[in-house]
């Protein structure tokens, strides 16, 4: 069974086999961990290096996370073996590695912890994982309860995988004085210049216990023996052998041997994580365990509490009650949490892609706008004098642009006004525009106004003779790295997005009393839209781009990649599409891209390399950019639908994107409804069997845009310079909704109701009719009662 | 039980549990594969990229091979599940993944194939692996024999792991027309410049069968189900489900369901490997399978035969019969095979380290001298005009210097005369010295004489004011990357080795009629030895070097790294050590470095970073360069002992290095005696429990030096300009040995016998006494009978 807990703090699964990949994730300032219901650590990453402290048993490529990831028997994980010392029977919690189906099983994905409850052989095993607020380490509780009416002789064996830490130097041993296992590794380096970077890494792995174990094992091979991981030879014996590891794969296993009376409970607590040296581990032990044992404060429980508070700070600015209870649950509880994760951690990277950094912080405008503000200034201080934005934003002095950030993309400037506008909507803080920041290549300070205007001018110049924007080696959401690397190819989407950015910037300039600039960019937007319609309209929809060799693609005569969602969604926003074109492209999207699982990114998916398009066409059909239901792109399309008042279409697609509690839907997607993944598998018309599956990746720019769809679109509660504009676009079958909206410190209790007596939407604040629907003069900390009458 | 087969073609193991890591390796021109007795593919690598075709199930770092490698349940492997359709019982051959101990078991590591024989439940399963001579693919035979007196209903399931091929694009399906499984993957790339490199990769993986299977499965997850790899759910069912893989980890499993009469045998044959496209796979199928089925030639059997012939070309130039039968077995069968592997494949790299390339080809002087000749010329054509040798030799136009070859080492020049001298000893081909080759930075041709003289001058100049050779970021065998990176630190070993290189070069020049040059370098060698004794002699042994900050290390006052083997062994060769020093250093080595498993590289092993020494001190104590019994270094010491006539010491240490058939010794080392590993674990005095273990890595420069120890030292059958010099140094307890020596085309049948009637060694050829012990005027293809009388 799959269900939300009554208090909405958890999502629960009651069998490890019906949804084998079900997972939850936790994060803090330094790390994230993604655990699945069977005990596998799907992904675990920390910043800075070494990135991991629990490794695959062989040399593993250090990856952050991978879509639709498979598991293997020795995948890193956290487990507890349980042995009945009388019968000799063995099982493991939560399920792996022994894979005995327990009598009862619950996997609860919470907001600030993840909990398993396993009942088997009249024993209850409860495991929970939490994190401290800042340190990269795991806080584990393991509670054992004897449910049987007789005394039990038991051994429990908490089993934390350590794995193959390093081919250069790895070892591990139990340290009496620390009451824990310490595994040591040396991070390899080749060049002496790299030594300074690696010498201070936290490349030790420790497991600390609050209770002295009866025995332990630190040698993976000795632990497993011929029994292997499903039935380790070492636990067939009476006591673990207290072994050590010397250039052998370490493992951290403890044995607690005890006799339990009927009803008796015992709780064990563990800390698992990385450290630089034993002094640091000792310091952790004192902070979390010792004080409590000495009668002082319980550092462990305190850290759990602090973490729960930290996560709860990630509240959004709306609380809704609609006819769709699942929507309410997701929007009130899980969506802001996911948005907060992005804004708070910048996805655990020290060089986030510029577009991600801006959008993730756009989301923070709803939660902690002061952080969004600081982030915008940071990004702009890395802009070039030419107006160009870099491919990634460097967040630490030692960071450098890595991986995809070394490949030049041309879209980064468009995100500046688009993301800033949300910050201004929420805060009305136009002072940010007067802030003066330097450039990457100049110490001279210029205002944010000037910075963004330069970015807009850069976009205006980085165009071909037709007025279409160059794509170089890529733009957002489609690493089409071969369309324009020769310097000629252009991006249809980017040209349309540029028109939209001009409009947004013109709006901001107008409100910011820069009327001349506003005028310039309104004109530029009109010209750009005209060019778009001249060169990119294919008759029923917009093309995706034109290659270096002047081949237009994403058009009706293409066999694969015939239609892309991005040019369509953004053409609704930029105003390029007039009503006739809007109707046509919406129809084309419905026919060619819409599926039971959402709107696909492009269709048909490419099944082989198209050399003039490049990398996206090498991705698996239906995944990532190649024809997946790529939620980030879909969110823009939905936002565009709201922009042109297509509220029924918009809500239908929005609902498909949000993971719901419908069991069949959950099984299809393979994911609990606690986050929006970056994609659901697409290529629905080509490979229906696999379509709809979740990528299981929770890093995605989708979330703030879904929030904007809710705020600006569905509930129509967007901020403006004057106040809060109320303009809901509820689906016609909704009779009533209530929304608690936190806005610039004020709290508005809004009741939206169908009313057959009104012809247009009418807004009343504390009983008073508001003529233009914009609620003005709101006072911080004050509460307001708002009634919205909507025509039936 | 562990034993050599009667015909010495195999080494055999008869239980998978007594030596769980026992392994054998095969190679051809494009790939190598290292299989262990349980079915794991320890290492598999091919050149060029993509390197692998059978992957770990998750994203695996692509490594060539790793020392003392651990395994995990899903490690890549080749297995056969066997199910009795009546009883439902399942086991697997060879042992993994089911891990049922069979009634009888044999693992036979052969020279040109690897064979397993498993008897269980009255069934005999025989598996064998061979390779074709050139193509990177595996040729498998699986034979099933019904040993029981009744009819049997069976399913056998050949199971070839494919694993997690690519996070970007992977799939797999059964192809009726190919009668096999084809798995497809796209190798990811980030930058468009890399696309040209990856577009032609063989990144498909195929399994072809010579007999039509009853069913198959291509989806790893579907195959395993909840049963997991030890008991896959799919084989619990009647028939495999004929599934496919779409962005899921592929696997290649076939099912053959059959009824077998008593005594009936069935053989299945498979080809497993990589290909660029299906056309190529079809071509392979036709070449290996179709012609046979059409009544034509049996391409499969032909390829096996060709491969056996190819391997048998790797014969050495001596065949011995001594009182030590195990020495005979290893030297006559396995040592030349390992040497041939190195010379033939250059360790499957396209940019071998210069010192490895020269030494591996030095070994080829004994097997295929024409290949050695070509290699020396190739290396010299990449020398700089300054005389400096590069860190790696580029063997393909697309190759580039990778990994460690990007770190500047200063020793490469010394290997030129040292390795060339063996070629000249064997061939007397002094014409090579007159060959004219260009430089890396100049098209101008110069003779090999001039090239090597420039290399010697480079060594003479790359020194500090004392006359000690700079170490920069490293020299051979000790990546001490921080001793001299500031440009001041010097290498004790390299200075000594330079003196030795000068002597060798002087000898060659003299024989090559360049008397003046010879004179120059003899003088230089004397001066160098004097400097060595002035600055590096520590009282009982030679220091290893002096750091940038003028700290002498590898000396008696050091707590760790007090003594290094390399300066000692080479001081015996260079003549730096007079008799008194020789005695002292040999005693120091005996006391501090000698262990039951051989001579350690340094002692005590470093247990923590020494920042002025660098990377070697970060390696695990007792491994690789940090205190292992590093056989390559040990071989030089032994060679040095022979050079000063220390024959008893030399043989004792030589014998410790060679893997023998003593069961206890094999268990300790964990390796069958079919190759010399690069190291046995050292740090014997610090961590005796783990000392002696084999690294299991068969890539090592050790082998040609062991051969030189045998030829130049033990049996004293070294070539000279005049002929074959006979000067054996047999251990005193050997009464008689016979050696068949192939030399410059002549075949000498040599009988060496103790004789109480002689005072010094006397040599007789075809009954005629040879005064100076040098057998001259040998005719190619002629046979000679040689008697050597050795004083008792």
Q: What would your notes on this structure say?
A:
The structure is a homodimer of 792-residue chains. Chain A is α+β, with helices and mostly antiparallel strands. Among the domains of chain A are: 2-309, Beta-galactosidase, Chain A, domain 5, CATH 2.70.98.40; 350-462, no CATH class; 715-791, Maltose phosphorylase, domain 3 (Sandwich). The first copy, chain A, is 29% helix and 25% strand. The first copy, chain A, contains 18 helices and 39 strands. An 11-stranded antiparallel β-sheet of chain A has the order 1-2-8-9-10-11-19-15-14-13-17. Chain A is globular. The first copy, chain A, starts with a strand and ends with a strand. The relative contact order of chain A is 0.08. The model of chain A has no long low-confidence stretch (mean pLDDT 93). Chains A and B meet through loops of A and loops of B.
Question: What key attributes describe this structure?
Answer:
homodimer; 792 residues; Maltose phosphorylase, domain 3; 11-stranded antiparallel β-sheet; 6-stranded mixed β-sheet; 18 helices; 39 strands; globular
Low-confidence stretches of chain A: none
Largest sheet of chain A: 11 strands, antiparallel
Shape call of chain A: globular
**Please, how many helices of chain A?**
18
The overall average pLDDT of chain A, rounded, is 93
Strand order of the largest sheet of chain A: 1-2-8-9-10-11-19-15-14-13-17
Coarse structural class of chain A:
alpha+beta
Tell me the Rg of chain A in angstroms: 28 Å
CATH topology-level fold name of the domain at 2-309 in chain A: Beta-galactosidase, Chain A, domain 5
Q: How many DSSP-defined strands of chain A?
A: 39
| Assembly category | homodimer
- Kindly state the percentage of residues in helix of chain A: 25-40%
What would CATH call the class of the domain at 2-309 in chain A?
Mainly Beta
Compute the separation of the termini of chain A in Å.
Answer: 38 Å
Strand content of chain A: 25-35%
Give the name of the CATH architecture of the domain at 2-309 in chain A.
Distorted Sandwich
């Amino acid at each position: 069974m799959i269900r939300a807990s009554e208090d909405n703090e958890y999502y629960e699964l009651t069998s490890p086999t019906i949804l084998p990949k079900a997972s939850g994730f936790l994060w803090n300032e330094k790390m994230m961990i993604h655990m699945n219901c069977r005990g596998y650590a799907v992904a675990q990453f920390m910043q800075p290096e070494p990135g991991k402290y629990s490794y695959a048993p062989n040399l593993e490529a250090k990856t952050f996370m991978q879509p639709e990831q498979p598991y293997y028997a020795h995948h890193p994980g956290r487990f507890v073996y349980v042995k009945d010392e009388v019968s000799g029977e063995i099982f493991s919690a939560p399920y792996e590695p022994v894979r005995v189906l327990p009598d009862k099983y619950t996997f609860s994905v919470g907001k600030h912890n993840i909990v398993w409850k396993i009942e088997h052989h009249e024993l209850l095993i409860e495991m929970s994982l939490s994190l401290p607020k800042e340190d990269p380490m795991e806080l584990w509780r393991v509670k054992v309860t004897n449910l049987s009416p007789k005394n039990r002789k038991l051994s429990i064996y908490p089993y934390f995988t350590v794995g193959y830490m390093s081919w250069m130097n790895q070892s591990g041993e139990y340290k009496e004085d620390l009451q824990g296992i310490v595994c040591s590794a040396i991070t390899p380096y080749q060049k002496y210049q790299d030594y300074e970077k690696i010498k201070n890494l936290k490349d030790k792995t420790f497991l600390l216990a609050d209770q002295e174990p009866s025995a332990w094992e630190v040698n993976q091979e000795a632990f497993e023996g011929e029994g292997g991981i499903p039935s380790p030879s070492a636990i067939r014996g009476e006591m673990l052998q207290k072994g050590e590891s010397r250039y052998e794969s370490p493992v951290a296993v403890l044995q607690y041997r005890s006799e339990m009376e009927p009803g008796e409970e015992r709780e064990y607590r563990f800390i698992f994580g990385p450290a630089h040296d034993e002094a640091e581990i000792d310091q952790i032990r004192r902070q979390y365990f010792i004080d409590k044992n000495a009668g002082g404060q319980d550092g462990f429980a305190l850290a759990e509490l602090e973490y729960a508070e930290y996560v709860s700070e990630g509240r959004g600015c709306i609380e809704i009650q609609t006819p769709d209870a699942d929507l309410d649950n997701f929007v009130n509880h899980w969506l802001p949490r996911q948005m907060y994760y992005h804004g708070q951690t910048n996805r655990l990277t020290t060089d986030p892609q510029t577009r991600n950094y801006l959008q993730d912080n756009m989301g923070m405008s709803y939660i902690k706008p002061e952080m969004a503000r600081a982030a915008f200034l940071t990004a702009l201080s890395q802009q070039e004098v030419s107006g160009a934005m870099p491919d990634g934003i460097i967040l630490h002095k030692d960071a450098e642009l890595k991986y995809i950030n070394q490949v030049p993309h041309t879209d980064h400037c468009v995100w500046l006004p688009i993301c800033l506008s949300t910050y201004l909507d929420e805060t009305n803080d136009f002072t940010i525009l007067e802030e003066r920041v330097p450039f990457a290549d100049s110490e001279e300070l210029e205002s944010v106004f000037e910075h963004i205007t330069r970015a807009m001018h850069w976009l205006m110049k980085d165009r071909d003779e037709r007025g279409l924007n160059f794509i170089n080696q890529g733009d957002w959401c489609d690493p089409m790295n071969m369309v324009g690397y020769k310097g000629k190819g252009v991006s249809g989407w980017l040209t349309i997005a540029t028109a939209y950015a001009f409009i947004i910037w013109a709006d901001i300039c107008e409100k910011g009393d820069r009327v001349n600039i506003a005028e310039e960019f309104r004109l530029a937007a009109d010209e750009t839209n005209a060019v778009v319609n001249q060169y990119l309209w294919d008759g029923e929809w917009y093309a995706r781009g034109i290659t270096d060799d002047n081949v237009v693609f994403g058009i009706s005569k293409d066999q694969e990649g015939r239609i892309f969602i991005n040019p369509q969604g953004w053409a609704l926003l930029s105003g390029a599409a007039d009503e006739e074109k809007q109707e046509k492209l919406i129809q084309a999207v419905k026919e060619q891209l819409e599926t039971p699982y959402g709107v696909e990114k492009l269709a048909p998916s490419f099944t082989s390399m198209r050399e003039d398009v490049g990398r996206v066409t090498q991705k698996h059909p239906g995944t990532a950019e190649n024809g997946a239901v790529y939620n980030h792109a879909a969110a823009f399309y939905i936002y565009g639908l709201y922009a042109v008042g297509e509220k029924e279409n918009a809500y239908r697609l929005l609902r498909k994107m949000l993971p719901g509690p419908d069991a069949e839907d959950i099984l299809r997607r393979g994911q609990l409804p606690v986050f929006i993944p970056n994609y659901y598998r697409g290529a629905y018309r080509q490979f229906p069997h696999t379509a709809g599956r979740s990528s299981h990746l929770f890093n995605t720019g989708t979330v703030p845009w879904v929030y904007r769809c809710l705020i600006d679109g569905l509930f129509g509660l967007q901020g403006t310079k004057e106040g809060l504009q109320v303009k809901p676009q509820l689906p016609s079958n909704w009779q009533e909704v209530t929304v608690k909206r936190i806005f610039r410190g004020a709290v508005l209790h809004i009741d939206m109701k169908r009313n057959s007596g009104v012809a247009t939407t009418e807004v009343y604040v504390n009983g008073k009719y508001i003529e233009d629907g914009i609620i003005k003069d709101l006072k911080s900390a004050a509460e307001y009662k708002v009634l919205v009458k909507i025509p039936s």
